[in-house]
């Protein structure tokens, strides 16, 4: 079972808009050195919605091959068409990913039965563990705990990234699903709180810039020392907030650029972090002990 600090890694871009694979390699080295527990490639933070299918598969394949099994790679393979999600998930399996992370279909707003059939179809079509991903604030589609309970019984569906930040909901999911069904936080600010109700880890934005501390938070959780986990997490509280002063991944890409790790570029319709918000991100980085 995957657990711990799983970074939702950004996809660096060059000034011509192409994926910057050299910068991506620098980020992978950064996470290997820091001891990050796993990489989630081409998720929301990786700008999956602006990559075409060939780029999407190329990034997943590059990350898997570069890491060569040193840490697990989860591939973001969600789409609002079930057929496209199946195709991306099959490509991730062929590339050698450890699991796929499949977001709820955005925009078309399926019913709970439609969501069940969507995820069931993917799991039955793909020989790769499937992690559900619920983030209704971005998708306008909410995968309810009772539907998660049904899906937990589908062979191949092994866990959920629950990104509502709602601890009561996480508790309901934990109570309704089999013991080995994994629960991952998708909101850094509530990660330790979710650990207290049975989460195995967090798929983290903050870990992009503070991977070592995020790893230490979860190693304290593994040791059962929640007070130490909370103490270390509190040092990152400002970052948890500042990295969402504008839509993710705008602030975190600006932060990584300020750290000298990537260029400043995003793809439209995302635009660089606005000048008035940069001081808040810079201050949060410095308060977390990150050198710029």
TrEMBL record:
<protein>
    <recommendedName>
        <fullName>4-hydroxy-tetrahydrodipicolinate synthase</fullName>
        <ecNumber>4.3.3.7</ecNumber>
    </recommendedName>
</protein>
<keyword id="KW-0457">Lysine biosynthesis</keyword>
<keyword id="KW-0220">Diaminopimelate biosynthesis</keyword>
<dbReference type="GO" id="GO:0005829">
    <property type="term" value="C:cytosol"/>
</dbReference>
<dbReference type="InterPro" id="IPR013785">
    <property type="entry name" value="Aldolase_TIM"/>
</dbReference>
<keyword id="KW-0963">Cytoplasm</keyword>
<keyword id="KW-0028">Amino-acid biosynthesis</keyword>
<dbReference type="GO" id="GO:0009089">
    <property type="term" value="P:lysine biosynthetic process via diaminopimelate"/>
</dbReference>
<feature type="binding site">
    <location>
        <position position="45"/>
    </location>
    <ligand>
        <name>pyruvate</name>
    </ligand>
</feature>
<comment type="similarity">
    <text>Belongs to the DapA family.</text>
</comment>
<dbReference type="InterPro" id="IPR002220">
    <property type="entry name" value="DapA-like"/>
</dbReference>
<comment type="pathway">
    <text>Amino-acid biosynthesis; L-lysine biosynthesis via DAP pathway; (S)-tetrahydrodipicolinate from L-aspartate: step 3/4.</text>
</comment>
<dbReference type="GO" id="GO:0019877">
    <property type="term" value="P:diaminopimelate biosynthetic process"/>
</dbReference>
<dbReference type="InterPro" id="IPR005263">
    <property type="entry name" value="DapA"/>
</dbReference>
<feature type="active site" description="Schiff-base intermediate with substrate">
    <location>
        <position position="161"/>
    </location>
</feature>
<feature type="site" description="Part of a proton relay during catalysis">
    <location>
        <position position="44"/>
    </location>
</feature>
<keyword id="KW-0456">Lyase</keyword>
<dbReference type="GO" id="GO:0008840">
    <property type="term" value="F:4-hydroxy-tetrahydrodipicolinate synthase activity"/>
</dbReference>
<dbReference type="Pfam" id="PF00701">
    <property type="entry name" value="DHDPS"/>
</dbReference>
<comment type="subunit">
    <text>Homotetramer; dimer of dimers.</text>
</comment>
<feature type="site" description="Part of a proton relay during catalysis">
    <location>
        <position position="107"/>
    </location>
</feature>
<feature type="active site" description="Proton donor/acceptor">
    <location>
        <position position="133"/>
    </location>
</feature>
<dbReference type="InterPro" id="IPR020625">
    <property type="entry name" value="Schiff_base-form_aldolases_AS"/>
</dbReference>
<dbReference type="InterPro" id="IPR020624">
    <property type="entry name" value="Schiff_base-form_aldolases_CS"/>
</dbReference>
<keyword id="KW-0704">Schiff base</keyword>
<feature type="binding site">
    <location>
        <position position="203"/>
    </location>
    <ligand>
        <name>pyruvate</name>
    </ligand>
</feature>
<comment type="function">
    <text>Catalyzes the condensation of (S)-aspartate-beta-semialdehyde [(S)-ASA] and pyruvate to 4-hydroxy-tetrahydrodipicolinate (HTPA).</text>
</comment>
């Amino acid at each position: 079972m995957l657990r711990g600090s799983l970074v939702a890694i950004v996809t660096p871009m060059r000034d011509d808009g192409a994926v910057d694979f050299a910068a991506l390699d620098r980020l992978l080295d950064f996470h290997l050195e820091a001891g990050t527990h796993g990489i989630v490639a081409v998720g929301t933070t990786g700008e999956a919605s602006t990559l075409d299918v060939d780029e999407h598969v190329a990034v997943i394949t590059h990350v898997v091959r570069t890491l060569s099994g040193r840490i697990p790679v989860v591939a973001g393979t969600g789409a609002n068409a079930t057929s496209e999600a199946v195709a991306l998930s099959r490509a991730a399996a062929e590339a050698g990913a450890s699991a796929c992370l499949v977001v709820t279909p955005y925009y078309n707003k399926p019913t709970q039965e439609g969501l069940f059939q969507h995820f069931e179809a993917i799991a039955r079509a793909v020989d790769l563990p499937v992690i559900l991903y619920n983030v209704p604030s971005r998708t306008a589609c909410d995968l309810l705990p009772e539907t998660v309970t049904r899906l937990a019984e589908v062979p191949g569906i092994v866990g959920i990234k629950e990104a509502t930040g709602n601890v009561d909901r996480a508790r309901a999911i934990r109570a309704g699903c089999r013991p080995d069904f994994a629960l991952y936080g998708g909101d850094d600010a509530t990660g330790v709180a979710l650990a207290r109700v049975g989460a195995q880890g967090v798929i983290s934005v903050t870990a992009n810039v503070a991977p070592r501390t995020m790893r230490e938070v979860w190693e304290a959780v593994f040791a059962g020392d929640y007070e130490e986990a909370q103490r270390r997490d509190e040092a990152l509280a400002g970052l948890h907030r500042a990295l969402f002063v504008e839509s993710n991944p705008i602030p975190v890409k600006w932060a990584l650029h300020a750290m000298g790790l990537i260029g400043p570029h995003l793809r439209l319709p995302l635009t660089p972090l606005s000048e008035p918000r940069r001081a808040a991100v810079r201050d949060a980085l410095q308060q977390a002990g990150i050198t710029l």
